[in-house]
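User: Some background: our group keeps a shared notebook of sequences we're curious about, and every so often someone picks one and asks for a predicted structure to add to the entry. Today it's my turn. The entry only has the sequence so far, pasted here. Could you supply the structure so I can complete it?
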Amino acid sequence: MSVELTIADPEAMEALGERIARELRAGDLVLLEGGLGAGKTTFTRGIGRGLGARGAVTSPTFILAREHPTTAGPPLVHVDAYRLGSAAELDDLDLDYENAVVVVEWPAERVEADTWLRLRIVRPPAGDPDTESEPRHVAIDAAGERWAPVLAALAAEA
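Assistant: Of course. Here's the predicted structure to add to the notebook entry:
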């Protein structure tokens, strides 16, 4: 099952992240695909807000991974895997997948897992002068039984 959404603006992208955060628990893996500026970090900021993350949720591009403690519940681990070449390099970061909510930007060819929630975010074509405020197309799919009720709830709300 997959869910297709149109997200109107950055505020709506954050709200989607906050909505999905209500379903997340320790051990969950969220994969974010999309070009530069698609809204991956904006979505993760919403997850952070929904989980009660302390401090600002910003892109971990140059440090690869950033852990955000939360006010209650598991920490949020935000990973930018763009500069990593393989799943082995991601594994070398020694992330605590079991006790945290892990969000990975640019996961292609870098993440090996049996259960995950994946968002593919598509922004308007390049050359549009105001792509920051343009709607995004988001396709959400998942692997693993754990996500079936989450996708069903998102589809019902769409």
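Suggested note for the entry: The chain has a mean pLDDT of 90. The beta strands are 2-7, 29-33, 65-68, 76-80, 101-105, 116-122, 136-143.
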